[in-house]
Design a protein that fits this description.
Structural class: alpha/beta
Strand content: 5-15%
Number of helices: 12
Low-confidence stretches: none
Helix content: 40-55%
Mean pLDDT: 97
Radius of gyration: 18 Å
Order of helices and strands: EHEHEHEHEHHEHEHEHHHH
Largest sheet: 8 strands, parallel
Strand order of the largest sheet: 1-8-7-6-5-4-3-2
Number of strands: 8
């Protein structure tokens, strides 16, 4: 059986870090990596949705992953999202990630064109073949990718021995259970939607990968700890606090990732830059709400942690 212990726990999705001109800042990448290591998370998920990877070049993604690995390689579980909207670039990133020693690579399905499932399977298997000694994680996020991981497609992918996990960001919680049952005891399933972290763990998720974890890792670590101790009522209260914060952060006009990076600057002294266009940066009128959200996080940490 495979050892999936490295996938059990809280794995923040890593934020893109830019300088004042909007270019990748590897120094800021390293600062965020050290920060998350110090917080005690299980790992990091690099160059995915929260990393704005869809708007970055192959060279930029390589530079980000190299900077992350220089700080936390061998200390945290590192999953590198390598999916691009063409197979060749995805395979290049997969090979590069394996050369750095990541724990796993991951990919969404191809987007825009609606491809048949056999073509999606070929895309994923081609990517996996470029990293033959590295686990492969299927990223299921149908609300953004426009393609859902069906059970027939999942069963086809399980024929690839490197397929080790699903990052499930579909909203129906029971999808986690279906993938876990079909994948078996040595197959990992990650809860994706942050608002249902505890529910996902309850139905069988081994851990979670989420876009808001990095702005408040203490709360997700506490929720996971309480759930693991079977203190479900206490875990639910932490989840409610998390959700209230998420809803408040989504109340800003600027992009959520711009909001969270600003909160990290307020609460932790981390300067990570803004977001990449066409994502909207913070608006001046966002700042009172951002300050409110930053305080909500501080207060929740004081109350529960």
């Amino acid at each position: 059986m495979k050892d999936i212990s490295k996938y059990q726990g809280v794995i923040p999705a890593f934020y893109a870090c830019y300088d004042e001109d909007g270019n990748i800042s590897t120094e800021r990448v390293k600062s965020l990596a050290r920060h998350l290591l110090a917080k005690g998370v299980k790992g990091v998920y690099v160059n995915g949705s929260s990393g704005e990877g869809i708007y970055q070049s192959v060279a930029e993604k390589k530079a980000i992953l190299e900077a992350v690995m220089s700080e936390v390689g061998g200390k945290l579980t590192v999953i590198a999202h390598v999916g691009c909207n063409n197979t060749a670039d995805s395979m290049e990133l997969a090979a590069h990630a394996e050369s750095l020693g990541v724990d796993a690579i991951a990919s969404i399905p191809p987007i825009y064109f609606h491809l048949p499932e056999y073509a999606i399977a070929q895309y994923w298997n081609d990517i996996s073949s470029a990293a033959p000694n590295t686990d492969f994680v299927i990223y299921n996020i149908p609300q953004l990718a426009g393609v859902a991981l069906t059970m027939p497609l999942f069963r086809e992918m399980l024929k690839n021995p490197r397929v080790a996990a699903v990052k499930n960001s579909s909203m129906p919680v029971q999808d986690i259970q279906m993938f876990k049952m079909e994948g078996g005891p040595d197959f990992a399933v990650f809860n994706g939607p942050d608002e249902q972290f505890v529910a996902g763990r309850a139905i069988g998720a081994d851990g979670g990968i989420g876009g808001t974890y990095a702005v408040m890792p203490e709360l997700f670590l506490k929720a996971n700890e309480l759930f693991s101790e079977n203190k479900i009522e206490e875990a639910r209260r932490v989840q409610y606090a998390i959700d209230e914060i998420i809803y408040a952060m989504c109340g800003c006009k600027g992009n959520l990732y711009a909001v969270m990076k600003k909160i990290l600057e307020i609460n932790e002294g981390l300067t990570l830059g803004s977001v990449r266009k066409p994502m909207p940066a913070l608006f001046p009128e966002d700042m009172p709400q951002v300050e409110k959200c930053a305080k909500m996080i501080r207060d929740a940490i004081a109350a529960f942690c």
